Amino acid sequence: MPSRNATYEPYRAAPEARTAQTRAPEQPQDRFRPDIEGLRAVAVLLVVANHAGLGLVHGGYVGVDVFFVISGFLITLHLFRELQRTGRIGFGAFYGRRIVRLLPASTVVVIATVAAAWTWMSPVQAKAVVFDALSAAAYGINVRLAVLGTDYLSAELEPSPLQHFWSLAVEEQFYFIWPLLLVAAATRRASRRSAAIALTLLGVVSFAVCVWQTGHSQPWAYFGIQARAWELAAGALVALAAERLAKARGTAALTWLGLAAIVAAAVMFDETTRFPGMAALLPVGGAVLVIAGGCAKSPKGAVALLKTPPMQAIGKLSYSWYLWHWPALMLAPHVVGAEHGLGTWAKAAVAAGSLLPAWLSLKLVENRVRFNPVFKRRPRRGLGLGAMLTALACGAAAIFLGLPNEVRGEGTAQDTAQALAQQNAANDAAAEARQLEEARKRLLELIATSAPLTAMPQNLTPPVTAATNDRPQGSKGCLASLDETSIKPALAEGCDKHGDPQGKTTMVLFGDSHTEQWFDAVDAVAKRNHQKLVVLTKSGCTPADAYTIKVNARRAFTECATWREEAFAKIKELKPALVLMSTRTYGDPPVDKAGAVTVGKAEADKAWSQALIRSAKRVQQLGARPVIMQDTPDPRGASVPDCVAAHPAAVQQCALKVATAIYATRKTANEDAAKEAGFTVVDPTPWFCTDTVCPVIIGNALVYRDGSHVTTSYIKLLTPLLQAELKG
């Protein structure tokens, strides 16, 4: 999964903010709450420490849950009081106040981040940040991140410097829904009971969705409003009970218990925790206890710690610090040229240093706008400010998109396609074999001469800024998503009608995205051999008879197993002549259906090769000839286009070392097991590497489109070599 971030509830119940309430007498629960200010400090410290990689708080991401509870409490407290007093909610004034509080600082951060990304990040990354900026400005970046998170091909992308805006998007989406629901539920009598019933129903449904989606589509559970609304609803329910809680006794212990629960979650949880799901109950419950217990204002409660000057100071800065710390952490490695990221102490220093722009932002932007009499007297004017600031952020992003986004190369490299093209039509099998051997030799020579390449050529194909989209186009719809469990949607897209539709025999392409990347070459081979081609591929789903951990879900990939069984049933129905199987080389051992590791790492290679051979034997039993394609050299998640764009004059820095790009022990295990079973194995390594290095540019061809997959442009050039390997 992408990295976890936290949010900050930006509404502050500070003394100055109470001037907005002029007609109603001040209620005990409306006074400034130093415990909430201090709770903000606890949450933001946990988040920043987690992002800085401090080991004691691997679960510091639970700060997001604390902030959601605070947000739901404070907003509902003020909305319900207004509803009680007037029988209505002034939506214009409400949203105007939210805009005045949120947008000035966030707009500055968005524009500053885009400018910094354009200056220090590669053109490929900078362009992606601009699109993130547009989503952030419209408070929809959580949806964008959820979509990207469920896309296996995007799963290993570097986190965006604006990724942290997802939580603000969730809050604003809740603020759009909740006031409308509150008015509808409470009626003019402002019934706490009816409001509480509506909140409870909303919370129960949202929590059920959260638990279910955490197990099935974790990015949507993490980023989606539908799975997070229950956390804001929990805080809102406390607000509805605030008057009674203010009269309660013995609540001091609750606040300490709640604070302990939050800290425990931060210490006990880590990246392997299935979150949010059921696990989120611990930090949410902790925040509820702190806020609810604090309504009675007992001096013996956790307020004794939370009201201390350092905690109050950090609490006041928490929104600004939240806005600035994440872009600083994401951009700092690019500024200093740290290819492999910063160390823990360096990240801690950067996070601490971001307090300076946070303080400046608070003093020079937030407070000057927020307390401006123009907006305090007439909050509805904030709507106009919001329109202006949104237009400013989007306009700035559009300007950056219009700037030149090219990476200039030097010189002209030998055209790889021309070097590998057949010189003339072959008249017989012997002539064809000679031409193939000549093409193979030319490729090996081209790889050898490209290995020491330093400058990116001007005639690079595809251009580095377009590499991400250089993927199979003819097989659109044939790569099932992570959540798909059936082959039927792919068949509906015509994935059983490739190759030569009039062919007498059938070939099947079966596996994951590292299989689907070969589509254009396999399709060309099928057409030349007058074979039908059926594409059965699924993101992250190995054809090997084993369970893996689902990307971004932290559980066994059961969807893969279900889909794989349907694929085998289809292969049985098709009775193909050949099934070409390939799979990404998984570094971790297989797991069982419960997600538990079944073998040690030392035995992983043997376990994986055996699982692959089991599937190959099953294919054979169905009457087809199985051919196993070894994996392509692996950049291991390091985006090659980004690297080339960042180092156009020193592309050798991006080259892959054979020692790490090729999983030698797995490769050998596969070969030995296949040889013993009598199966054909195709090893593409010589088409990519010398004995020591795998250049990322061969001739004028860019080899990789991301940190894992080969460009379709290069795959097409390998068609004659693959054709020869598939001959039975």
Automatic annotation (TrEMBL):
The molecular function terms in GO held by this entry are:
acyltransferase activity
Which is a Pfam family this sequence falls into? SGNH
Alphabetically ordered keywords of this record: Acyltransferase, Coiled coil, Membrane, Transferase, Transmembrane, Transmembrane helix
What EC number(s) is this enzyme filed under? 2.3.1.-
Give residue ranges for domain Acyltransferase: 35-352
Q: What class of enzyme is it?
A: transferase
Where are the annotated segments for Disordered?
1-31
Where do the TM regions start and end?
60-80, 100-121, 165-183, 195-214, 220-240, 252-269, 275-296, 317-336, 342-362, 383-403
Q: Does the keyword Transferase apply?
A: yes
Residues covered by the SGNH domain: 493-722
Which residue stretches, if any, does this entry annotate as coiled coil?
A: 419-449
Does the keyword field hold Acyltransferase?
yes
The protein's name is: Acyltransferase family protein
**What is the native source organism of this protein?**
Dactylosporangium cerinum
